[in-house]
Amino acid sequence: MKSKTLNISLAGYFHDIVKVPLKASALNIKNLVEKDLQEYKRHPEVGYQLLRNVPKYTKVANLVLHHHERFDGKGFPKGIKGEEVPIGSRIIAIVQEYDELLKTMSEEEAYKVLERRKGTCFDLELVDLLINL
Length: 133
Hints:
Layout: H1 2-14, H2 34-41, H3 43-52, H4 58-65, H5 87-101, H6 107-117, H7 124-132
């Protein structure tokens, strides 16, 4: 279990590492033009390719690849859904969203947003677990 926790932690740390060279306009996902959106959507695959070539990060690479998948299958890059998405990737997605929400709202408001998105964007049980922590 310790190894799995370490892998999730490392994947959380590295999941957006390839966003560094993206143009500033490609980082504001709400206002992207199609060309920038395609560039943005490539970052999980580019991160995966980088990490899988470093022997001590090969297990982390798959978690990075799937951190933008959604529980309902409408995510990217593969469009996988539910339990097909590695649990570490599902955890990273929730924590990343929670962190972003806290920049503009209270914890209580952020919990309500996560609650509304469970079952579509996020794993139902994992959202409940976070909220109950």
